[in-house]
Amino acid sequence: MSERISVLICTYNYARYLPQCLMSVLNQTHRPDEIIVLDDGSSDDTPQLMTKFPDVRYAYQENTGKAVAFGRAFSLSTGDIVCHLDADDYWEPDKLEKVLRHFERNPKLGGVLHEVSYVDGSGQPLNFSWATQHPAEPETLTLDGCADVSFLYPLPNARGRFFGVPNTCCIRRDVLQDLLPMPREVGGSVDGILVAAALRYGMAYLPEALAAYRVHGKNAGFGNVGSTQETISMWEFLLAHPNFRPFLSDRHAGLLRAKILERKAYLASRTGRGVLAGAWAGIRVPWILGANGYRCSWKHLALTATCLLPFKRRDKKLRQPTGVPRPPLANLGAAAMHRANPVSVTKTEGTSASGPCISIVIPTRNRWEILAQCLQALPAGARAVEPPEVIVVDDSSNDETSSVVSSFRTATGWQVRYLRQEWPRGANAARNAGLDVARGEVIVFLDDDALVTEGWLAKLLAGLSHRVPVVSGPARLTADGPLLGKHRGEVSAYLSEILVAARGSRGEIVPSACNMAAFRWVFDRARFDETVRPPVEENDWLERSGVRAGFVQDAWVWHHKSSEEMTPRRVFAGVWRRGGEGGWWLRERLKIPATERWSLARSSLHTSLRAFAHALLRGCGGGVAVGLGELSKALALVGVSNRKPRVPESWR
To answer: What CATH fold (topology level) applies to the domain 358-561?
Structure first.
């Protein structure tokens, strides 16, 4: 390829990651013509480190922010194609070769971006469910095709498509040059301007992970007050720029104004500053969206109220958008937001000092591997929500649970607490222990084998109200092995698959503690009974709390079961315990009359006999499971089993 290639790396106090970053560029199968590192005033060992890389051009400046740093690096470069790379990330060896191939095929193409793999601070892989939710084939992205994405609160009828991670962008020099220089206020949203510039002429999306995005506890972005201000500055700059505005249709320009107003109202609601202007901005958002044929989210309608009502503000101070070195709010979920918010995600320094409004309590015992997956999924699940407080309550594990929690705390920078019970007391005791230390106004309970989906937390919280102060969502079963039997429905319920709202004896919705949220005041009425076990722990708590529960169908999680849990021995033992627990609860807690108990027992026994006959005639293990569960329930109902005194004990 005859065109020159420049790689631009802006860095600030990333000496610990810079060597791997630089070596990944130097070891490309297609070597770039020049590599420029622009040091934005680092106070670590970066200057000394760069003496070890004589083939790399190094320039130092006083700290002025990433926008200014990138502008200077661009002015020093000579390449026809400019490639952006963050100093804490690194490339796969064939990245440039594959990217340049697309430039060669289409000389008019504005730029190329692609997917990434995710690694932690030490370079160990991180697995996120949303990381595979993208097209399998390359696509060409256009400016107008991305018009209705990137809203803080996604539009219900949005049709736009955007994929890839903005900070992987490679762009033609002449495509970007007419938008420079960038104002300092753009800060870390530099990659957003690169993407916007390239989209004017079409941008190739590659589904391959050609770079590694490092999640090390100092990444931040979507929803952070400072980076939101930088996003506003970026969009205002683009909307007013004479070389960008002509590329926008009237619809796209209107949507861009709506995005700006949406974030201004959001900032006012978060900081308490300029609340009248913020409220007016919030009022205008639905009108602009409606005028362009879009329905707004219900959260857009609430923006004005959140600006004016005297809520407790969580972010009193707006930081100066100085670009690379940024303070608060570490958010692992920022990486996940690249798809929904392609031009507003940035990397920052710092951690959050504000108190949480949401606490997630996760009880666990001796399941560190699935707990790690549960925690890794949380940032994507908490997308568009203030990073929650996470409390992991260890029910006296003897495995690597504490190390998993520590790694998650380091990787995300979230407020993560680890509690350990000195002897096994069960899930309900662990939940109560989490309640004792939780500081959130809303308490979310999540099982350690529940893997949340993208946007899960916002959807779950949207179902809460004063009339419905408790909500839960579906739990879809995913297993490492086949389900026992020939009919999924026979055993899936015993394995805690919840596809529709569970109902109590009076038809009321019963929440599931594996995926549940409630206002804190609800637990002032009643805590979980530590002597009650699955599957009736939630029924028991709901009876005593006297509140109404709801069910949010789209706030679902995967309920993971290991191959060991799927063995016939474990399944049969589990259904026997659950059936007996249900019968005991009806007998001892609801105190139903003896005649009614005997009637229910006869019905369960009849069902049991039919299930065993089905198992015998069809060779179906699922029938055995159903039969055991119903037989155990019948025996407990009449008082033959489950008669011992109750004490808190481990469920596992």
So the answer is: Spore Coat Polysaccharide Biosynthesis Protein SpsA; Chain A (3.90.550)
